[in-house]
Design brief:
Elements lengths: L1 H29 L1 E9 L2 E5 L4 E6 L6 E2 L4 E5 L2 H26 L3 H33 L5 H30 L3 H27 L1 E3 L4 E6 L6 E2 L4 E7 L4 E7 L11 E6 L7 E14 L13 E9 L11 E7 L22
Antiparallel strand pairs: 1-10, 1-14, 2-9, 3-5, 3-8, 4-7, 5-6, 7-9, 10-13, 11-12, 11-14, 12-13
Helix pairs in contact: 2-5, 3-4
Length: 347
């Protein structure tokens, strides 16, 4: 009896192996390669570049958003105050640079000239006083102290005249080039600070970087958020692909750019067009989540099959069956054939 059951079991195994072999041979003859995988998409963690209090969220989980659409906003009151403060500093520095470039005013030059003329007149008067006192000293009508005082007064007015003439030269020549360069550098720094403050106000409005769907709404209005902390999770709709696996015997039949057709259990009567975008150069063991009739221990090569889904019916993780016609002469496909202008081909 045991021998009978062993014979039946062995016969069943042989029939199964023979059937798989026959199906594999049939698959080779027809040129239609069938592989299995799951829909995969890229995700983006949307975050603010600066911290603050969330003022509003414009989207909810499941909402579809377009590139550039505002999805969240921070309270920018303090940021705008910073912009206003720096704008005032920039305006003041602009006037300082302008004043330096224009140089001295005519009135300032005339005042410096008048100071020089006054010093010269006082010097002449001091010389005359000294001459008279020297004559009086000869007849001993004044003391030597008065003569010395008159001589010191002459020296004082000489120094005053020299200082006035130097001041006149500086006023006529105008500001130093180093002072002008320093003022211009300060103005450039203030303008950069203003641009940074304005950019922070702009960054207080969080925008979607690409088309997609909101998967997670992590924070709510009123919450304090730090710079770089995720607020929303965006699932990108472009590109959309299936992560599938090709067995080693079939690897030589597939090349990048080949047409492919995908089917899912959710829409069994619908076929999605696609193409082979990438085939891994290294082998790996078949993941347990892949639905395939091949043995789990068999080495396979990961492939990325881009798919056209204008109606956005395919979801992340959805299992799909991929069929590739390896005998087709015109096996290349272009994203424009998807009927959706947003599909981008990435090989």
């Amino acid at each position: 009896m045991k021998r009978f059951f062993r014979a039946v079991l062995l016969g069943g195994v042989l029939l199964g192996v023979t059937g798989c072999f026959d199906r594999h041979n049939a698959n080779n003859k027809s040129g239609m390669l069938t592989i299995y995988g799951n829909i995969d998409i890229r995700e983006v963690q949307l975050a603010f570049q600066d911290g603050g209090r969330i003022l509003s969220l414009a989207v909810d989980e499941g909402d579809r958003v377009e590139k550039g659409q505002m999805v969240a906003e921070l309270d920018a009151t303090r940021l705008q105050m910073d912009v206003d403060r720096i704008s005032g500093e920039v305006a003041a520095q602009v006037q300082s640079v302008r004043r330096l470039h224009e140089g001295s005013r005519p009135q300032e030059i005339e005042r410096a000239k008048a100071t020089v003329a006054s010093a010269r007149a006082n010097l002449r008067d001091a010389h005359l006083t000294l001459t008279r006192k020297n004559a009086l000293r000869i007849t001993n009508r004044i003391s030597q102290q008065e003569v010395d005082s008159a001589s010191a007064q002459v020296d004082t007015w000489k120094a005053t005249l020299k200082a006035a003439e130097e001041e006149l030269a500086l006023v006529v020549e105008g500001p130093r080039q180093e002072d002008i360069a320093a003022a211009e550098a300060t103005l450039t720094a203030l303008q950069a600070a203003k641009q940074l403050a304005e950019q922070r106000v702009t960054d207080a409005s969080l925008q979607a970087p690409a088309d997609g769907f909101i998967r997670n709404r992590i924070l709510e209005p009123g919450a304090m958020v730090t710079a770089g902390a995720p607020v929303l999770t965006l699932a990108l709709t472009n590109p959309l692909w299936a992560r599938a696996y090709i067995s080693e015997p079939d690897l030589g039949k597939v090349r990048e750019g080949m047409r492919a057709q995908l089917q899912s259990d959710s829409y069994p009567d619908k076929t999605y067009q696609g193409w082979v975008g990438f085939v891994s150069p290294t082998a790996e063991f078949t993941p347990k989540t892949v639905e395939t009739t091949e043995l789990r221990t068999k080495l396979v090569y990961r492939a990325r099959i881009f798919v056209c889904d204008p109606a956005h019916e395919l979801r992340l993780g959805m299992p799909v069956t991929v069929t590739i016609d390896t005998t087709a002469k015109d096996s290349s496909v272009h994203p424009a054939e998807c009927g959706n202008s947003t599909v981008t081909r990435i090989d």
